[in-house]
Amino acid sequence: MPRKPLTAGVAAARHLASQGGVVATLVGETGVTPYTRMLIKGVAFGPTPPGFITLRLPEVEYLADTVTGIDPGDREVRLTSGARIGYDAVIIATGSRPRLLPDTVLGAGAAMERGQVSPLHSLADAQRIRERLAGLGRRARIVIYGGGIIAAETASTLQEAGHTVMLINRGTVPGLAAFGAPVAERLAAEHQSRVRTYFGRTVRQVEAGDHGVVVTLDDDSPLIGDILLVALGTIPAAPAPAPWTGGVDVDAHLRTDVPYHYAAGGVAMHHDALGAWRIDHWEDAAAQGAHAARVALHDLGLDAAPDPYLPRSPYLALVYGHAVAGVGSTVGAVSRLEEGDEFIVRHERSGTVIGVTGIDAVGTVSQWGPQLHQAAARHSGAQSRPPFLKNTP
Question: What are the chain's domains?
Fold first, then answer.
């Protein structure tokens, strides 16, 4: 039951709806029309109308009534309206919320209230940013704080549209955790050649005024912009109160420590053969949601036991005209750049490839998905394709 019925919850409900004799209820946020979060950049910076990104729901009962808590003892979900829903099993797919500026940043709260500091996480964020940029009547000066996928795509989109972009990142190489060092280093060079970069810096103060926002860095350098976009990643958003108030810990089968309670997507904190990890992107959340549904059906005696969940889902980001593709995970991995005509990076743990990223090599990267997490001998330096494609022209 997701708070916002986005990808993990919808995928779980869709799988359950395909099973005979199963009654599934999808619970969303009060007053919110479900939408595809991966398309909100088009609303914020392009011509995409908000209604265009409405998410198609499966044929299950849908309640737009925010979850306020889960009672595992009575197996009831409590809703804002006061209603209670009984269940045999529950899948928590409440997603994530944006990581905002730390409380130590002076003036951040006042600037957010004025709309001059904003994350880009929700449709409401996108509409607010769109209105602010449209109201300028000119090209904007935009400061971005972050270095992952959202920050990179946003910087690229805005630079190509003719806006002045200032990109701040806490590390000297942005995107290391998301892409691995070889890809991140290549993207850092692209950023430095296209936009103004302030790597290895943090934000100390934000001053909002009628003519813009002044962002002061930790070395006292002032940046003057029209808006500060915060892209510092996400944190899990579990339903409160206890037993879950932050992320929801799950095992290799997406089970929590409470029987018949599962979690999937951005809220799920995984503990399995890969260690402790969390992935918050669309395709992986959908795969987790469907997997959690299969596990729940098995535990209820309605389906066969699925294998443990391991991330194999692809993602794609378009950055300065380059297709940055990835599949699987980079958590705790050693990154190795392949020799060959394509820019391919393998991410390995103990000789096992757990993820692959690449630049302008979408086909090769995506073909790795089925072969990830299988223990195998290291490939030769010239190997830039999955083992099963080695002899494919």
Answer: 7-97+234-299 (3.50.50.60), 108-230 (3.50.50.60), 321-389 (3.30.390)
